[in-house]
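Item description
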Amino acid sequence: MKFLKCISFNEDLDIIDVESTFTRGIPNLTIVGLANTAIKESVERIKASLVTCNFAFPSKKITINLSPSGIPKKGSHFDLVIAILILLQNENLDDFFVVGELGLDGSVKSTNELFSLLLFLSAKIKKARVIVPKSIASKASMIPNLEIYGIEHISDAVEFFKEKQYEKFRFKELHPLFKNSFSLNGEIYIRNEIFEYDFKDIKGQKQAKRACLIAALGMHNILFEGSPGSGKTMCAKRLVYIMPPQSLDEILIQSAYKSLYSKDCDLNQTRIFRNPHHTSTRASIFGGGANGARIGEIALANRGVLFFDEFPHFSKQIIESLREPLEDCKIHISRVNSKMSYETKFIFAAALNPCPCGNLFSKNLSCVCGDNEIKRYKNKISWPILDRIDLYVAMDEIDVNDKADLSSKQMNDMIFDAFLFQKKRGQKEFNGKLQDEDLKKFCILDDEAKEILDKATLRYNLSQRGVNKTLKVARSCADLAKSEIILKNHVLEALSFRMRG
């Protein structure tokens, strides 16, 4: 029995051992192991390809097993590995992942999902040798953790395994993104150096910028409320440029998720920003669809920013469906033929007007909305959703004397220093995404800070979630001040950004 490895993507990336046996009997090729139609059709493609290329098809009963047998497999990229096992039944095969579709002329072709599979593989396995179609070998070689070998024709595959001159087919390219990487606690990080949108463009709004600084450092959810044109959207769009450096795993997972959506993508030093329109369907935001569990905006925003502008204008169903992704940092999509789980660790940023006309906070313009109209507008967002918001910012009204102060580069530097301070204490997760059991370990309060928090809990009737959110924000405030202990002023600042019902 011979075997090589392949990959398939269902609920998770599955490593598939492709095994072959040759026994006496009527010549036949059978594929077992829950293979879908595309894989079963490979029988005829492989036969035609081998005959066209003058390879003798074995006159034996051939059984190909895709193991583990209980996991459904899909994709035409199993063609190449099956053909190699048939042609090289008497050879000693080294351990490789093999992916590629066969043409009837023996050529090795790429598929739509292949690059996505390679990205997921690189995120799951630290070192893997992979044989891919030559057409994508150059691009695939830029993915870290993978040794890429490019094959153009089935005859190249035979030469590759028979002569074992692997370096002849090896593709080596370092992605430009990793030339300026740095290592920290055994992890590789890439710092953003692109500032397409700059906080310097926003005049005034010191409180909002401070909130953005805290939100970006700790990946805290943030809500902007203010008059039209006060800078709510401008602040939200600039968050990704000041966020902490991305780790190698974060970049790979982000690119892998994006590739599921667009089928082709590149590695990026800037975190992802997703901004769905309020008319978007629930399936487009949370994922799903009639034919399968397709990825949605919620998962695409992972490790970046998901921004809902005109928040109350989103449907009630969409707003209420945010509860689980914001709380559990995961989303599960179930359909008849597929089930998928995606990570949803992102900054949820939202913007809304204080009333339907937007002039309620204005000192110069009159609000034309009635009390009931304002109440209906605000009631579109339930308290359980607001309780999941870490930072609430009431935007200042524009003033002619407002001046620009901090730039995105300066804010990024401040966050980078706080990020290094955070990592020195051994914390792996962002403050805003800490699990409850980690709070006692990383969110240590002095006596005064604890007393303030206890009084605020009683006075403002904070829920347990609200207390934990306050602790996490205070931890980010302390990190910006490079304080190992959370002090009174850090708790007070966190409480000042807490929305109260």
